[in-house]
Amino acid sequence: MNGFQTHLGPLVFLDLSLLTMLVLVAFAMLRSRHLFAVVMLSGIYSLLSAAFFVSLDAVDVAFTEAAVGAGISTVLMLGGMLLTARREKPVTPGRAPVALAVVFATGAALIYATIDMPAFGDPNAPANSSVGQRYVEETPNDIAVPNIVTAVLASYRGFDTLGEVMVIFTAGVAVILLLGVGSVRGGTRIVDKDEDE
Amino acid sequence: MERLILKVTTKILFAPIILFALYVQFHGDYGPGGGFQAGVIFAVAFILHAFCFGLEETKKAAPQKALIVAMVLGLMFYAGTGVATMLLGANFLGYDAIDPASTHHAGQHYGILLVEWGVGMTVASTMLTIFYHFTGREPDIDQEDW
């Protein structure tokens, strides 16, 4: 470690308050039994994450989180909720000492791992110094596109993005196969009969 | 007329949402955005339409069969750009081959625009397909049922 100290400016407190709100929303989601409220809270969670990403200067990620997390997935969760009950069944409270021990052990391990992490905003952190630095320096010469994120996404790592598009395509195909009504078997179209007929 | 304010608002908002999606799509080189976000925004316009006018009306505007074609075409567009650069003698997705004489990497700009267009097409049609299949399973519910 090179002794870099994070400057405790107002932005850090903004980040901390956003993170605190994220934790509060997560607890509210755990406590609520009303599924509609849970779906709306998950949308709020995504919106808060998007605000957090903006404060970290990751506008592209924030944009995606706001559009996909707060927008589409909330709608899809609402659509899924329509197919099930409106309320979660009450769970009989019980104690699970093994689960508690596992959660605490994992949490302790994660907190222990953060001690080794570079300080927030450290310019010499591995994420900033090695390949990230190269992208920032070389994009004007290699790609000549102002938005470095787009250069990395579509050009430097175009092959990865092709894989991502394929993942989305596969998700769509899977949904069509699992939920699609009216299938084709052996070249003839088979229409599902209505249940009340 | 039922839900008049919502219907009028949706009609007013529909075109600007599509326009914003296209802006995000084609401005990804210069600002935040790109095919993924644009595709989602594009799909959201139709989802808003479905919320106000019912799924059947939206399915007339964007039929399921066309969406499946768009899903495949988007992916083929992306992969096809890669194959095209290979045929031009470069690596897969080596965009510089599109305009090798350019001094300011115009080929990269063209290549990124082309693959982002493929991404946007696939994302928008896939999101709408998933939405259709999830919400199309039950008849429209009453306002009180929420």
Mind explaining what this structure looks like?
The complex is a heterodimer of chains A (197) and B (146). Chain A folds into two domains: 14-88, no CATH class; 118-182, no CATH class. Chain A has helices spanning 10-31, 35-55, 59-82, 97-114, 126-129, 131-142, 148-156, 158-179, and strands at 183-185, 188-190. The model of chain A has no long low-confidence stretch (mean pLDDT 85). Chain A has a two-stranded antiparallel ribbon. Chain A is extended, with a radius of gyration of 23 Å. Chain A has 197 residues and is mostly helical. In chain A, a hairpin with a 2-residue loop joins strand 1 (183-185) and strand 2 (188-190). With 146 residues, chain B is mainly alpha-helical. Chain B has five helices and no strands. Chain B has helices at 4-26, 35-53, 55-61, 64-87, 106-135. Chain B has one domain (4-145). Chain B starts with a helix and ends in an 11-residue tail after the last helix. At the A-B interface, helix 3, helix 7 and helix 8 of A face helix 2, helix 4 and helix 5 of B.
Describe the protein's topology:
The complex is a heterodimer of chains A (197) and B (146).
Chain A: H1 10-31, H2 35-55, H3 59-82, H4 97-114, H5 126-129, H6 131-142, H7 148-156, H8 158-179, E1 183-185, E2 188-190
Antiparallel strand pairs in A: 1-2
Helix pairs in contact in A: 1-2, 2-3, 7-8
Chain B: H1 4-26, H2 35-53, H3 55-61, H4 64-87, H5 106-135
Helix pairs in contact in B: 1-2, 2-3, 2-5, 4-5
